[in-house]
Amino acid sequence: MHSILQRILRDRSAGSHAALLGLALLVVYGTSILTPLFGDDTILLTRARDTGWSPGELARAFRLEIDDLTDGWKPPALEGYRLFFFRPLVVVTFKIDQALWGTWQPGYHFTNLIVQFLVSWCVYLLARDASLRSGYAFLCALMFITYTPNMMTVNWVSGRTEALSALFVLIAVRCSGRYWKTESLSALALAYAAFLAGLATKENALLIPGFALLACFTLYRAPWNPRKLAIAFSPCIVIYPAYFWLRAKALGGFPAPPEGYYFHQFWDADFPLFFAVKMAHSIVSLVWQFPTPLLPELIQRSAPGVAVFIALAIATLIVAYRWTPAEFRILAFGWIAIALAPTAPIGFNPIYFYLPSVAVT
Predict the structure, then answer these.
(1) How many Å apart are CA 297 and CA 278, to the nearest integer?
(2) DSSP letters along 18-29, please?
(3) Are 331 and 214 in contact (CB under 8 A)?
(4) Is the distance from CB of 247 to CB of 312 less than 8 angstroms?
């Protein structure tokens, strides 16, 4: 075991590490190429196929409705179910896939593998930015590839939105870090290009400025500079209102998450209990890697179960804190908090499918 670890940690050229990461990705996820399309895959790919190339059509194409999920039978739990998302860039990738692969399903999975490789490579580069030796940076990227909850992001074609979102998060963070080090306006422009691309991919890209701010003071150790802060974040004053306006215009409003088993509103009486259980499950899932999406819903029905699980989460936090090098603790725990923040009202645990950018920690 020690000799294997020594070989993994050996410093090599970036090209060698890229080749090894690609090989690891094929070993871990290569069988996904043989997986048939199912569930949301067929729904969203059909929607993309029937969508034109106009911006308005692309902006409205990423949606799921009750008739997509059932064949006339409408159980009460799904009554009124409809989810509209503003993810035109993901729809564009689906349409490009259809032009390239046609009905050959493995091609769609191959595209997912390429995206996941790019995310893994960004993890490698982020680790190098943290002044880690190339062998340790390779280990970080390898751990990201083998991180269990990422499997659905790769195996489901519809999960591409998660991987693309993580990719743009990491690109934006690295480019903003370069701006903090060099004051390069071209690096800042690239960071905002990634920010805009992320907003067209998934809603959690709204958090990119938060990730960038956290990284600039922890990973890149930038000194406090109000002028640079103003230059770096002033475009957000325009971007955020413009995004919400475009999203509302494309989707016919900006509705709150629908009522139902999988959604909990902040004002619900049982929301504090649900939130505590889900966050506890998120912590345990992150460290021990068991993605069980419905567990929070089951645990919160039992008071002893809630107490035991929260105690397990606290113990897990202590273990994770001791495992994490002191210089990375604020970055690691801050990154998790930012990434999980928007999933608060979602019944499914975010670790099993949502926000693979959490796995960067």
Answers:
(1) 8
(2) HHHHHHHHHHHH
(3) yes
(4) no
Task: List, in order, residues 6 or more apart from 67 with CB less than 8 Å away.
Answer: none
pTM (2 decimals)?
A: 0.86
Amino acid in position 201: T
Each of the 361 residues of the chain gets a pLDDT tens digit; together they read: 556 656 666 777 888 889 999 999 999 888 888 888 877 888 889 888 988 999 889 988 888 766 665 555 555 555 656 678 889 999 999 999 999 999 899 999 999 999 999 999 999 999 888 888 888 889 889 888 888 777 778 888 988 888 898 899 999 999 998 898 888 889 999 999 999 999 999 888 888 898 988 888 888 888 888 888 888 888 898 999 999 999 888 888 776 555 555 666 777 777 777 777 777 777 777 777 665 555 555 555 666 667 777 888 888 888 888 888 877 888 888 887 787 776 666 655 544 444 455 566 5
Smallest CA-to-CA distance from 144 within 19, 313, 25, 30 is with: 25
Residue 65 backbone phi and psi in degrees, to 5: -130, 165
Residues 6+ apart with CB under 8 A from 279: 313, 340
CA 181-184-185 angle, 5° bins: 135
Query: Residue 340, class by beta-carbon neighbours within 10 Å (0-12 exposed, 13-18 middle, 19+ buried)?
Result: buried
User: What is the rounded distance in angstroms from the CA atom of residue 348 to the CA atom of residue 329?
Assistant: 27
d(Cα 316, Cα 321) in Å, to the nearest integer? 8
The whole-angstrom separation of Cα 8 and Cα 17 is 10
Q: Which residues pair with 84 in a beta bridge?
A: 63
Strand partners, 82: 65
User: In degrees rounded to 5, what are phi and psi of residue 102?
Assistant: 60, -125
Tell me the C-alpha distance between 173 and 195, whole Å: 9
Largest CA distance in the chain: 60
Query: Which tokens hold the place of 253?
Result: 């409003």
Burial of residue 335, with CB atoms counted within 10 A of its CB: 0-12 exposed, 13-18 middle, 19 or more buried: buried
**Gyration radius of the chain's alpha carbons:** 21
